[in-house]
Design brief:
Length: about 270
């Protein structure tokens, strides 16, 4: 499987909208891997994860063909992962009929409510199939198992274990320390690739619905202990906030000794 990490920032982006902190200023000056857009990923050419406000920019920047997308999985309803109003542009009048017919969407109930609220001038309605943690889906060549995140109250936020062609990856954004249900599921899973959020980066904020480097390293240690990652599993951290004091070069210097890669926008990983 090939996964492209299309957006690697937390909700406000880096540089953030309206911010002149030293991280945002330096990111503006340095450019390159320090420029981070809102979250999203693409597995091979047909399985899309999340549809945030920078999706069109991702399509343009990486010369993606969204008419190849067959399945769209949503992790949760936060705006940086579900810019639901953008979805209307997949509908007839803005796009050929086949685009809308081909792309099947899967989400929790909060995302479903947002998506079903989208008004389209020609009367088309968007719909999504409800999915639940630990109820696997077979979508073409993929077996997808949603698992519980620990991210926001009042919503069943999901992370995804994706299996295809004998390979297994775990896409884990957004979450705090994983819930027991998810640890239990991951035991012995021997992941080939872990993509893990690290929103707080260098700052140990008390907020428990995202992870810092220290916490991410603890997650990796536990995943190793329970046989969910091996010495040769690839580990990539993503979803960084400027509040985490997160310049790409510094994060890379801190994590390379641990064998961990720092995601950047457009990064392609063979899992
Ligand atoms: Zn997010
Ligand atoms: Zn800033
Ligand atoms: Zn979120």
């Amino acid at each position: 499987m090939k996964i492209r990490i299309l957006g690697t920032a937390a909700a406000e982006g880096i540089p953030a909208i309206g911010c002149d902190c030293s991280i945002c200023k330096t990111a503006r000056e340095r450019g390159g891997k320090n420029i981070r857009s809102r979250s999203g990923a693409l597995v091979n050419d047909d399985l899309k994860i999340d549809f945030g406000p920078d999706t069109l920019y991702h399509i343009h920047r990486n010369q993606l063909d969204p008419t190849l997308w067959k399945w769209l999985l949503f992790t949760h309803s936060h705006h940086d992962h579900c810019a639901h109003e953008e979805l209307q542009y997949l509908l007839p009048g803005f796009a050929p009929e086949k685009t809308h017919q081909q792309l099947k969407m899967f989400s929790n109930a909060c995302v479903q409510t947002k998506i079903e609220s989208v008004e389209h001038y020609a009367g088309y309605r968007l719909s999504t199939t409800l999915i639940q943690a630990f109820e696997p889906l077979m979508l073409g060549p993929y077996q997808i198992t949603p698992v519980d995140a620990n991210h926001t109250d009042g919503e069943d936020c999901l992370l995804f274990v994706i299996e295809s062609e004998g390979r297994r990856l775990f896409y884990a954004s957004d979450t705090g320390w994983l819930p027991d249900t998810t640890w239990d599921y991951l035991a012995g899973k021997s992941l080939d690739l872990l993509v893990l959020e690290c929103t707080k980066a260098f700052i140990e904020a008390e907020y428990t619905k995202h992870l810092s480097f220290t916490e991410c390293l603890q997650v990796c240690e536990r995943l190793r202990e329970i046989g969910a990652i091996r010495d040769d599993s690839q580990i990539v951290f993503t979803h960084f906030s400027h509040n985490g004091n997160a310049l790409h070069e510094e994060m890379e210097a801190a994590m390379t000794p641990h064998g961990i890669q720092i995601a950047y926008d457009g990064m392609v990983i063979e899992a």
